[in-house]
Design goal:
- By secondary structure, the protein is an alpha+beta fold.
- The chain has 10 helices and 19 strands.
- The strands form 6 sheets. A 4-stranded antiparallel β-sheet has the order 13-9-19-18, with no helix packed on it.
- A hairpin with a 6-residue loop joins strand 11 and strand 12.
- Helix 3 packs antiparallel against helix 4 and helix 6 runs antiparallel to helix 7.
Length: 521
């Protein structure tokens, strides 16, 4: 009975035999059978088979075609990338990257002369990791001299991967699998992952697409999708490409400096008015002082009588008004100061409107409607149409930061006012526009533009002929001289907020060689 039990036990395949059968099934293309055999070997205590089963399932999951669900049609800007569908998002939740290894703190100095396997075992034990080796990893080999001087644990493992020609696949934060770095082993063990990144709001669609196109061309990513509406980017490929691509993409679209622009608009108004001269009477009363034809000279108001001429019944009287001498002066002065602050990101425009919206008649009917003319039909009068115009100051500023101390500003300023004149009831607007690009230092005032307007009005009134007499005419007329002067000045001062592009801290991205890309861990 004991002999039968022993024979049955010996008939069961060993974990190593199951692992070899799984490798044969994997090479022949029977991936499902290979996963089953790897799991059986792992159940019998072979940890390497468990790691191979997990890696093979990850590759199978990445290679399976995903049924694309019908997504709602959304109008998006033109893009060179495929859109991100709900199926892609589900795939990204399934193709998760492996866990990150938990490295000890501090730096290490090592000097060993051992075989590659012994080097991995020694370093793994030193850093507190549990190691698994691929079944094809050699147990023995030529001894290598491995030295490191004051390096972190991550840097030591990266250097050891290059020195031994191998790569590691993390299984848990404290366990990883060591595999010989060949093209076949890369295809077998390197995980395929998908990552979805959310983009910050200040990034424009054009910048997002240009950055994505650059990253895809540099890293040669297998699948790269961009969603302009939800502002997401999805990438899928081997983990040795995805992790550096993610780091590069995040650094290119990292924190951007902001610029606080302080603007001041000065307006000075001055009014001068002078009135001087003599105001002579411009009318007189002539009346008859005779009593003929029942004329009663006594009823004539002669309070303003200045003289008479003639005799008897041919006598006439003349009255003249009084003359007035005037000399007045008026001087007025006013000033207006408008201050405002605008914050804008580097390369993004900021707009400022100071004023009000004014309705301007753009179309209307002014002809005869036939009302009151006896016409049986009246002409239909369409309602007028209006357009609201922004009156006041409209300012658009776009900053471009060049460094910690300098920047360029693209300035577009427009000033609209009512002139007071109109044509057919449509007011005439005065428009002044200024466009320029200036280069300034940080926290430096600059004059962006100005406007001077002088108006002089001269009015002369008096008796025709007398008022034009040389020299004497100036005393025989009234002179009104009015002068209006308006001066406007626009100044601004930019201040850099945040980190400038030249001083932004970026981290080095370790890629490895072209034939042996570095495995992130």
């Amino acid at each position: 009975m004991c002999l039968a039990a022993a024979l049955c036990k010996s008939a069961e395949p060993s974990p190593r035999a199951l692992a070899r059968q799984a490798q044969k099934a994997e090479k022949s293309g029977s991936s499902a059978e290979a996963v089953l055999l790897y799991n059986q070997a792992a159940a019998r205590g072979d940890l390497n088979s468990a790691a191979k089963a997990e890696a093979l399932k990850g590759r199978l999951l990445g290679a399976l075609p995903v049924e694309k669900a019908a997504a709602p049609t959304v109008e998006t800007p033109a893009s060179d990338f495929s859109p991100i569908t709900p199926a892609d998002l589900r795939e990204a939740r399934e193709l998760l990257p492996p866990p990150d290894l938990k490295f000890p703190s501090g730096n290490f100095t090592l000097d060993y002369t051992l075989t590659p396997r012994k080097l991995w075992e020694t370093c793994g034990k030193l850093f507190g990791f549990e190691l698994l080796f691929d079944s094809d990893f050699p147990d023995a080999g030529q001894q290598l001299r491995f030295r490191s001087q004051d390096e972190t644990a991550r840097q030591v493992l990266q250097a050891l991967s290059i020195a031994t020609g191998s790569f590691i696949v993390p299984q848990k934060p404290n366990r990883f699998l060591v595999v010989k770095d060949t093209q076949q082993k890369r295809q077998e063990f390197e995980p395929v992952v998908a990552v979805v990144l959310s983009l910050p709001d200040p990034i424009t669609v054009q910048e997002m697409q240009e950055t994505a196109r650059t990253v895809q061309q540099v890293m040669e990513i297998q699948k790269f999708g961009v969603d302009n509406v939800r502002r997401m980017v999805m990438m899928r490929d081997r983990i040795s490409k995805i992790r550096p691509t993610q780091a590069l993409f995040e650094q290119l679209l990292g924190a951007r400096p902001a610029v606080m622009i302080e603007m001041e608009l000065y307006e000075v108004r001055a009014t001068y008015a002078n009135q001087y001269g003599t105001r002579l009477p411009t009318s007189s009363n002539l009346f008859w002082l005779s009593s003929l034809f029942n004329n009663d000279p006594s009823k004539v108001d002669t309070g303003g009588l200045t003289g008479s001429f003639g005799r008897g019944d041919s006598m006439f009287g003349l009255t003249l008004g009084s003359a007035t001498v005037t000399a007045t002066a008026l001087k007025g002065y006013g000033k207006t100061l408008q201050k405002t602050f605008v914050q804008a990101l580097n390369g993004q425009p900021a707009q400022l409107l100071l004023g009000e919206k004014f309705p301007v008649l753009t179309a209307g009917y002014f002809g005869d409607t036939g009302a009151g003319t006896g016409s049986p039909e009246e002409v239909f009068r369409p309602p007028p149409s209006f357009q609201f115009e922004n009156l006041g100051l409209a300012l658009k500023v776009t900053p471009f930061v060049h460094g910690e101390e300098e920047m360029s500003l693209e300035v577009e300023a427009e000033f609209k006012l009512l002139t007071g004149a109109e044509i057919n009831g449509i007011p005439i607007l005065a428009n002044r526009k200024f466009t320029s690009r200036v280069r300034l230092k940080n926290d430096e005032w600059a004059v962006i533009g100005g406007l001077n307007q002088d108006t002089e009005t001269i009015n002369k009134s008096g008796i025709p002929g007398l008022m034009n007499v040389p020299i004497l005419g100036a005393a025989l007329r009234t002179n009104n001289i009015e002068t209006d002067s308006t001066s406007m000045l626009l100044v601004m001062r930019p201040r850099i907020l945040g980190v400038t592009p030249g001083s932004a801290q970026t981290s080095a991205i370790f890629l490895g060689s072209e034939s042996r890309p570095a495995m992130p861990f």
